[in-house]
Predict the 3D structure of the following.
Amino acid sequence: DIQMTQSPSSLSASVGDRVTITCRASQSINSYLNWYQQRPGKAPRLLIYSASNLQSGVPLTFSGSGSGTDFTLTISSLQPEDFATYYCHQSYTTPYTFGQGTKLEIK
Amino acid sequence: EVQLVESGGGLVKPGGTLRLSCATSGFTFRTHTMSWVRQAPGKGLEWVSSISSNGGYIYYADSVKGRFTISRDNAKESLFLQMNNLRAADTGVYYCAGSPGGDRVWFDPWGQGTLVTVSS
């Protein structure tokens, strides 16, 4: 199975900050990498698909990059509604696997 | 409006069975790969199973293989998960999610989830 490792596991930041979350795959997954946001008690929400494509309706403050084994999710200017948990997800092969999550908290 | 509504969750004893359903509307269900993703309490996301648009390709996580069966009814735009021989480790919120057709899979849209609790 492909292991997905996110860092950091948690992060404290302030409104307006720029933050970056990284995701590393245990083997190359090309660009088969997606990012989700999950707020407490809610279903996940797709943010980025295929490493760098912004899902419709997602603010332009979100961006994704990377290919192969190393990927990043960047939020250019944190808004209050961005404080949530973020997951990466590889769809290169089954079993599809997720990172363990990065909890973004208000400083 | 896109809607996915899961049902069928509940409290069941170890070894018991449940059948989850996901009723959908507002998108072209018949062209979407559909999946189940679960989340144990306080834990991360875990992919459970996927079924291709015509049902011809089905995949399972090793943790549920041989116990769970995914199926779909394109005429009724519904997805199902038959869960047998349930274990405590199967406890969690079960989400149904769609993926547009093609070789690239990403989960969107999602349902609101249904809670499955396996406990004696």
Chain A touches chain B through 23 residues (CB under 8 Å). The mean pLDDT of chain A is 97. The CA atoms of residues 16 and 78 of chain A lie 5 Å apart.
